[in-house]
């Protein structure tokens, strides 16, 4: 078994997954805010 060297792991897949998660979360929050504003205007 080889010894682990700090910083040698390939993290490209994890970085792409996290970037996708952040993008999805941001878009979801924006949609929720827009829907809340529309609901407030309609009931206003």
What report would you give on this structure?
With 44 residues, the chain is mainly α. It is 73% helix and 0% strand. The protein contains one helix and no strands. The protein has one helix at residues 12-43. The protein starts with 11 loop residues before the first helix and ends with a helix.
Number of separate strands: 0
The radius of gyration is 20 Å
Distance between the termini: 67 Å
| Beta-strand share of residues | under 5%
Number of helices: 1
Gross morphology: rod-shaped
Instruction: Give average pLDDT, whole number.
Output: 92
The helicity comes to over 70%
Unreliable spans: none
Largest sheet: none
State the secondary-structure class: mainly alpha
Order of helices and strands: H
Tags for this model:
mainly alpha; single chain; 73% helix; rod-shaped
Strand and helix map with partners:
Blueprint: H1 12-43
Quick structural summary:
The chain has 44 residues and is mainly alpha-helical. The chain is built from 1 helix and no strands.
